[in-house]
Model the fold of this input.
Amino acid sequence: MKGIFKKLFGSKPVVTVVSGLPRSGTSMMMKMLEAGGIPPLTDKLRTADNDNPKGYYEFERVKQMDKGDTAWMADAQGKTVKVISQLLKFMPAEYQYKVIFMRRNMAEILASQKKMLINRGEDPDVAPDEEISALFEKHLNSVMDWMAAQPNVSVIYIHYSDMLANPLPQIAQLNEFLGGHLNIEAMAEVVDPDLYRNRKNRLTKEQASSS
Done:
């Protein structure tokens, strides 16, 4: 996979990045890309829990990028790494980044965050929803403007609800964005395990009826 990326995007090493607001589907996307054939960069220090039963796919050193810890990025070449949106601007300039930015309805994000805080025994109402939503929207606009201005950053926006409702078109866009070498069937099964089984059953029935 590393060789494919270098061939497609030139001499700069390429790193695939998954980002977005908290609770926007970044862990699901990391799992999809792993199934599709791109290994994740993760230290597995943050284990799965009730809020993310399939795991968080995090790499702790990412959180130190704003303090200058970016040497680990060399290990991310040809892999995918999750970077929270606040830290994207600290990614070192000597790499080419293919950013998959997850979007989600703000009300769903806030509801999911509240549920997570309750599960952790924390106060879910530390700030009004309107205040948090306004801060998130301002941050999103800033991050999107920043990415658009970076010559070494390419970005695709994937909406969480669109992926759940109809994954195949979203996965097809992702596959094209990342060079066309992903295992689409395996990625679809991460979103909906019955998707390809149902499709195969339908095709089998159609073939039987036409024979």
Remarks:
- The chain has one domain: 2-210.
- The chain is about 45% helix and 10% strand.
